[in-house]
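DATA SHEET
Item: assembly model
Revision: 1
Owner: S.N.
Input lines:
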Amino acid sequence: SQTIHQWPATLVQPVGSPLSLECTVEGTSNPNLYWYRQAAGRGLQLLFYSVGIGQISSEVPQNLSASRPQDRQFILSSKKLLLSDSGFYLCAWSPVWSSPLHFGNGTRLTVT
Amino acid sequence: RKEVEQDPGPFNVPEGATVAFNCTYSNSASQSFFWYRQDCRKEPKLLMSVYSSGNEDGRFTAQLNRASQYISLLIRDSKLSDSATYLCVGAGGGADGLTFGKGTHLIIQP
């Protein structure tokens, strides 16, 4: 069966510090991969999605970036965090378009 | 612009009652829909897929009305553990075609 792992679960970082969140999927090949952010009391915002190794599409302009160095690995990064980057970050995968997403446990990021 | 709209609630419902809420979508090209459940400070989890005319799974029934562009979720014999936020999702066909509603907050009261 397929599983998705995301870490860390919680993170407290000062403004201006770098960020690296990692997500890996097991049990499938060539998944579609996604990074979402959910601010407190708000809906899910799609940040990035990837259809294959090295292929990243960005949905919103921001100081975040994403990379997919391996088929089942998706990384979310920032060189300098802003206070507004605080939120609940969720990695997700799906086998094909229009199929439901399966989410990781999420990373709760607090920028202080 | 593709949108999925939901009543944010909260819906306060006594235990054992039946509750229903709707979700409207603006993208007529959406092919499939899903309901997710999200508990406080947790990740969303797939509750049901809604493909053609609807779907039923135990106490949960989802209906799709393409003419009026809405889907509904019906929960029968509600239980305290049903308290959560329910997210409606429409899929339009592309990788970025998954559009999430902001969720409906449901509180089941003893």
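QC remark: Chain B is about 0% helix and 55% strand.
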